[in-house]
Automatic annotation (TrEMBL):
Keywords: Cell membrane, Membrane, Transmembrane, Transmembrane helix. Residues 25-175 form the DUF4131 domain. It comes from Candidatus Falkowbacteria bacterium RIFOXYC2_FULL_36_12. Residues 215-477 form the ComEC/Rec2-related protein domain. The chain crosses the membrane at residues 12-40, 52-69, 239-263, 269-301, 331-349, 394-411, 418-438, 458-477. Pfam families: Competence, DUF4131. The keyword Transferase does not apply. It is found in: Cell membrane. It is a multi-pass membrane protein. InterPro entries: ComEC_N (IPR004477), Competence_DNA_uptake (IPR052159), DUF4131 (IPR025405). The keyword Cell membrane applies. GO terms for cellular component: plasma membrane. This is ComEC/Rec2-related protein domain-containing protein.
């Protein structure tokens, strides 16, 4: 007989499986498959009750996925794709790049035959760097809308769908109508973020300034393309990305740092959790950042308890709630997938491989940091090979060499910013320490990136990826294998 927590686990797995099936195959086939599996499982002894619950959660997953697929009606902006339109709405996100700016535009009304009609939906606008627009600006946009399409092997349309963006605008005519028309609290936070970024740039030189802004604020603006390529080749792009992968790994590093400073586990947990919360607020508290923060705190909670089995249901419940809010992230958000896998690695795989690294010193948390890094890399590599077709041979050693310094650069960078608010000269003095650490990281990454074998192109298909994860699951959950057998007794 299954325990209550096991029933919850399998029901939520059924819910997630239904969402995945909906986006892979048609709704009708998914329903037919569910009915066939229900009939089959009902013939097995003592499984009728759990089969009913699995079926209910499966259908609920299909309903959620179907509900989040927008209808193409005149009330949504994507209905007018491939047409020249004039719409009014609010800028909800500004992403400045080196040579252009990407604006996320939330439409409110459209001009049709000299009349305004209410409308919903988002448009991704590619505009020039100037004039500058800000979050909360109310604008009139005139543009020919186009539908997102795959770019070679990159499923750009599905990538944007996770943000509920189904329309693009490349040659906009923009008229600014009003300022400050969005959430005032978030607007103040974003202004503070910009002020923080300016303070960083005034206290240390480039490219270290942009690098530090990437670590503290998740901003890639100003980071040279060559340096970004070096990060990519050495498998450390996550340190400048606001992702669950980054936050989960860094949160463990920060926890280890606190413990090495003789801060007790309970205080360390709450201290790092507070830090993650502040980081989430400073970066704008977008849905993706909040998801990443939740994953990071979940890993901290597991480390705080010291028992992974207490977090199994919390992990699946967390993933289910996230997919309930936005089911598209399950298959179309690599960041969510990588963060989920990294979380599993840090919670479940790291204790399994720890016995192989007992020979390493525990000083400066070297042993724990290496185990955490390898656990995350092992769990995410198959997905990276499947989606990005690139494998960094030097990623383990580079991560080991630099990740231990990330908490320190975050600490010195934070002090640098705070003192910079008071006095730029004092901020520059403190910033020298940050600059030294950042320079070490950049030189390490650049050195390993220059090696001819640093990164290789390697692709695996979906079948091989699933086989690898099945084998990893057998290794991780070997002691729990009887749980699956009990279902059919």
């Amino acid at each position: 007989m299954l325990k209550k927590r096991q029933k919850i686990f399998y029901c939520l797995c059924s819910f997630l499986f239904a969402i995945a099936l909906y986006f892979v195959i048609s709704l009708k086939i998914s329903i037919s498959l569910a009915i066939i599996l229900f009939i089959f499982s009902s013939t097995i002894k003592n499984t009728r009750s759990i089969s009913i619950f699995l079926l209910i959660f499966f259908f609920f997953g299909l309903i959620v996925a179907n509900f989040n697929t927008p209808p193409k009606t005149p009330s949504v902006i994507q209905y007018y794709n491939e047409q020249y339109v004039t719409v009014e709405g609010i800028i909800t996100y500004v992403d400045e790049r080196l040579d252009h700016t990407k604006l996320t535009f939330k439409s409110q009304s459209i001009k049709l035959d000299f009349n305004k009609t209410k409308i919903t939906g988002k448009v991704l606008i590619k505009s020039q760097l100037y004039p500058k627009y800000n979050y909360g600006d109310f604008i009139e946009l005139s543009c020919k809308l186009t539908s997102p399409e795959p770019i070679e092997k990159f499923q750009y349309d599905k990538y944007l769908a996770r943000y509920n963006i189904y329309s693009l605008c490349y040659s906009p005519k923009i008229i600014l109508l009003k300022h400050n028309q969005a959430n005032l609290i978030l607007q103040k936070i974003l202004h503070f973020k910009d002020f923080t970024s300016q303070t960083i740039n005034q206290t240390i030189p480039e490219p270290q300034a942009s690098f530090l802004a990437g670590i503290l604020l998740g901003s890639r603006k100003g980071i040279p393309d060559k340096l970004l390529q070096d990060f990519n080749r050495t498998g450390v792009t996550h340190i400048i990305a606001i992702s669950g992968y980054n936050i989960t790994v860094i949160s463990v590093m920060l926890l280890n740092l606190c413990l090495s400073l003789n801060i007790n586990r309970k205080k360390a947990f709450w201290l790092v959790t507070f830090g993650i919360t502040i980081f989430t607020i400073l970066t704008g508290a977008s849905a993706a950042v909040i998801r990443s923060a939740i994953m990071g705190i979940l890993v901290l909670y597991s480390k705080y308890l010291g028992r992974a089995n207490h977090t199994a249901n919390i992990l699946i419940i967390t993933a289910s709630i996230m997919c309930l809010i936005n089911p598209k992230i399950l298959l179309f958000d690599a960041g969510f997938q990588l963060s989920f896998l990294a979380t599993i690695g840090l919670i479940y795989l790291s204790p399994k491989i720890k016995k192989y690294f007992l020979w390493l010193t525990i000083k400066f948390s070297i042993q724990e940091n290496l185990i955490s890094t390898l656990s995350a890399i092992i769990m995410t590599t198959p997905l990276i090979l499947f989606q990005f077709e690139r494998f960094s041979l030097v990623a383990p050693i580079v991560n080991l060499l630099i990740l231990s310094f990330i908490p320190w650069v975050m600490l010195t960078g934070f002090i640098q910013v705070i003192t910079g608010f008071i006095s730029l000269q004092l901020g520059q003095l403190i910033g020298f320490t940050s600059w030294l650490i950042l320079e070490y990281i950049i030189r390490t990454v650049s050195t390993f990136s220059s090696l001819p074998f640093a990164s290789i192109n390697l692709k695996i298909n979906c079948g091989i990826m699933l086989i690898i994860y099945f084998c990893l699951s057998l290794f991780i959950f070997s002691k729990q294998k009887n749980i699956f057998i009990k279902m059919f007794k």
